[in-house]
Design a protein that fits this description.
Elements lengths: L1 H19 L21 E7 L4 E3 L12 E5 L9 E3 L23 E4 L2 E4 L8 E6 L5 E10 L3 E4 L9 E5 L6 E9 L12 E12 L7 E2 L5 E3 L10 H6 L4 E7 L11 H9 L13 E7 L4 E3 L10 E5 L2 E3 L1 H5 L11 E3 L5 E3 L8 E7 L2 E11 L14 H40 L1
Parallel strand pairs: 1-8, 1-13, 9-15, 16-23
Antiparallel strand pairs: 2-6, 3-4, 3-7, 5-6, 7-8, 10-11, 11-12, 12-14, 12-15, 17-21, 18-19, 18-22, 20-21, 22-23
Length: 428
């Protein structure tokens, strides 16, 4: 009898749970919530050269399973329009194989309908349109990539805007105002040791004569290289002044690390491992690269607005030691951190092999084991290599040492045999 009552009670609980269960609602497609504009406009956006730019396709028809990106330098020049697509809308590109200064076609990727441009440069500025293979246009961007004219180390706070005015003839009202808009200082790029803070200043223009087809939060402000700037402001487009990169020293303490989960500790203890053998939280990467070629290391997960730092072993690589007070147009250093936060070797040498650490937002984000190996370039013989004489000397010395050891062993063995034979003859 009690068993029957328990079975009925369990059946009642299950029936209550079944009747109270509600199926989760299907999430609405993000593209179904936003309609494409009836009149195509272009969202103005500006970045510093060297960063990875992401242009999301904010709207498209739901039935479209892939998109095509169109690029042109100027509106109206259809003969210069290029198509960026892999015919599937999901092109993947290994960032480690992206050339340091290659064509746009070798530096882009399409992921989830968004266009990614690796190591964007001033030549990548222009109009980008998300569309279909049938030339249906959904969303557009006016991209302005500005190159920093100077990298400076500052100890004092400067104003966020530096303004230059250009007045029209016979009028006291300026045609436009040019100013450098600085973003907020980044967080300290290292913790526990002296680090640096970085802020980016981009060139913008304020005018009442900007093209209405280019959209921003303020319709009277656009970046200096935008297509919204009238051609009459030719002096502005030729100068392109204002883009800057500033940094200052800082030092903060590292936050306390959260202890590993108790279940993981119990599992490691059960398997016989100590806490020192716990898996490392920083991912490790291995990279081989030929010598005498340009090498660019990027920090995994880095974005344009993040603080990035680099160390070689326990030795920090500071921007102030490589770029403080230097002009970008001056003779470049062989090892530097560019404006896109990449560690650039121009070129890489065999002595650059070692372990490099990447910091992201004040915490170590990656450990890179780099091996730079010597190689022969096309049309180069073995004897023309600078290390050939040293290699020959090393081989000859090794051969001479092995020959001496071999002769010593042979003569020693012959001497021992002669001594034994002489002793046996003496006894006889």
């Amino acid at each position: 009898m009690p068993s029957i009552i328990s079975v009925l009670f369990l059946h009642l609980l299950l029936s209550l749970e079944v009747w109270s269960y509600e199926a989760p609602e299907d999430k609405q497609d993000v593209f179904a919530r936003k309609a494409c504009p009836a009149f195509l406009t272009f969202t103005n956006t500006a970045y510093l050269a060297g960063v990875t730019v992401e242009l999301p396709c904010h709207c498209k028809p739901q039935q479209m399973q892939s998109v095509v990106w169109f690029f042109t330098k100027h509106l109206g020049g259809s003969q210069d329009t290029r198509v960026l697509t892999d015919h599937h809308g999901n092109k993947l590109l290994d960032t480690s194989k992206v050339p340091h200064s290659g064509d746009l076609r070798s530096r882009f990727s399409i992921r989830l309908f968004s266009l990614l441009i690796f190591r964007a440069g001033p030549d990548d500025s222009g109009v980008y349109i998300c569309g279909s293979p049938h030339k249906d246009f959904f969303y557009g961007y006016d991209l302005d990539i500005q190159e920093a004219h100077a990298i400076s180390f500052t100890q004092r706070l400067t104003s966020n805007k530096k303004v230059k005015e250009r007045k029209g003839l016979g009028s006291a009202q300026p045609l436009y105002r040019v100013f450098t808009s600085f973003r907020p200082w980044s967080v300290c790029d290292r913790c526990g040791v002296p680090g640096e803070q970085v802020r980016v200043g981009l060139c913008y223009v304020h005018s009442n004569f900007l093209h209405v087809r280019y959209r921003r939060a303020n319709q009277t402000v656009a970046s200096c290289g935008s297509g919204a700037v009238p051609r009459a402001f030719s002096r502005l487009k030729q100068s392109r002044v204002g883009a800057k990169l500033e940094f200052k020293s800082c030092q903060v303490t590292c936050p306390n690390k959260a202890p590993p989960p108790s279940k993981l500790q119990a599992l490691m203890a059960f398997l016989g491992y100590s806490s020192a053998s716990m898996p490392a939280s920083v991912p490790v990467f291995y990279l081989n690269h030929p010598a005498e070629r340009v090498l660019t290391l990027g920090c995994p997960g880095a974005r344009p607005n993040m603080a990035v730092a680099w160390d070689r072993g326990s030795e920090p690589i500071y921007r102030s030691e490589h770029s403080a007070g230097r002009n970008i147009s001056a003779t470049p250093l062989r090892l530097l951190i560019d404006t896109g936060h990449h560690l650039v070797f121009t070129p890489a040498k065999t002595q650059d092999s070692g372990v490099y650490y990447c910091w992201l937002q004040g915490r170590q984000a990656a450990e890179i084991h780099l091996l730079v190996y010597a190689h022969l370039r096309r049309g180069q013989s073995v004897t023309s290599h600078p290390d050939f004489p040293a290699a020959v000397r090393t081989v000859l010395k090794s051969y001479a040492a092995m020959t001496a050891v071999f002769c010593l062993l042979v003569f020693g063995r012959a001497g021992v045999r002669h001594y034994r034979d002489t002793r046996e003859t003496h006894l006889d």
